[in-house]
Amino acid sequence: MAVQAERARLRANQEAKVSSAIRDVMLRIPDAISFADTEAEASGIAKSPEGKFVLTYLLATRNVLKPVLSDLHAVNPELLQPLGGREYNPERTIDMVGISVAHTLAENSTNLHNTWIRTEEQARWRPVKPAEDSWEHAERFIFVDPLDETSAIPKGNRVQSTGLAVYDRNGTLLTMGVMSLVDDAMMFIDHTRGSQPERPVRQAEAMPDPIRIATLTRRMYKMRDLPLFTSGEAVLAAESIGGYVVLSMMQEKIDAMIDPVKGNPWYEYIIWGPAAEALGFVVTDAEGKPIDRAEIVRRGIEKNPGDNYRVPFVISRTPEIHKKILTLLKKPAEDKTP
Predict the structure, then answer these.
(1) Is residue 240 part of a domain?
(2) % of the chain with per-residue pLDDT over 70
(3) Based on the structure, what is the number of domains in the chain?
């Protein structure tokens, strides 16, 4: 009862802030989910209940938001109003669309028992079913980023995407997907329990000249004097990190995504990191060492480190590009010649 009461209170607070603009969008969600369910079933690519949930979520969120984002300059300003959260990346009204799709799908699912869900903007775990009030017995954990790059909408930058991943409590990835909300790009992986999808083998290719890098501009003050950018061997090609960049790397429009200084929040990394790995990209920390994603997930579930736990990383399309970037990230040796 306590869980139900808390959920009702949170929803009441949210609904009080919802404008007529977002209500019009939210009214489309039931039809979008119904259509997406048919699309997901017809595709035949989802192999598990978790995979069906992920694929339906991606398709439904796209069905609702792609028309809204068809002209970024025409997006109703009320949809971009902050509702709280971090000052540099607040939860906005439009984020409620993906959040509502995720929770509606989860609550109505008959196959997701003992499952808890968390969205980026609502940084706390919630049971999919109200009766499941103990995370210690949960079997699955769903992480959702309902709308990545909302801050780029007023600028007219078409980089919006959504992504989610499902893990078991041991930190094993069950299924995940990333969907562009402004074009038709998507990546999705699913596998039956106990198996792992095969990672594609990427063929060696010529070193791009220059290497096209994606990173956050607010990190550049720490990197602008490194050879990565002073040598002329790399250029800043995208001022973002997330689903848009992963899909752009898949399309070979960007060569690497890096956040070696401060790192991504853990709950974001465990969506974009495995998406890159599934595409055959090289993923390490800033020193070139493997990242223990399973431990990150377990820590996020059991120890609940909050939003302060971050994962520095370097993700490259090929091993050759990765090796070059790691070299260019090192500070140049001081000249001690007298």
Answers:
(1) yes
(2) 84
(3) 2
